[in-house]
Amino acid sequence: MTDTKYFRATFYDAACTESNIVIEFKAPFPVDKETDYKSMAIKEFIQLIGLGQIKVRDIEPVEV
Questions:
Q1: I need a labelling partner for 17 at 20 to 30 A (CA). Which of 2, 11, 23, 32 fits?
Q2: Cβ atoms 38, 23 nearer than 8 A
Q3: Model-level pTM?
Q4: Domains of the chain by residue range
């Protein structure tokens, strides 16, 4: 029988690894090799943005 557990996913900007966003999401446990946990984390991240729980703080031009 598969249960669920909270997992933590860290998202980062590939160009600047100092910038991180960490989310938690529920997924099947124990870990199943057939389950795409990365896709589940991405879907949860997008959902949190849609719900307004993750927001844009600042928008500014980049000096080039």
A1: 32
A2: no
A3: 0.82
A4: 3-50
How far is it between the farthest Cα atoms of the chain? 55
SS3 58: coil
Instruction: Provide the residue count of the chain.
Output: 64
Q: How far is the C-alpha of 10 from the C-alpha of 41, rounded, in Å? A: 9
Q: What is the pLDDT of residue 7?
A: 97
Nearest in space to 27 (alpha carbons), one of 46, 2, 53: 2
Phi-psi region at 52: left, alpha or beta (left = phi > 0; alpha = psi -120 to 50) = left
Nearest to 8 by CA among 16, 18, 20: 20
DSSP 8-49: EEEEEETTEEEEEEEEEEEEEES--TTS-HHHHHHHHHHHHH
Report the amino acid identity of residue 38: K
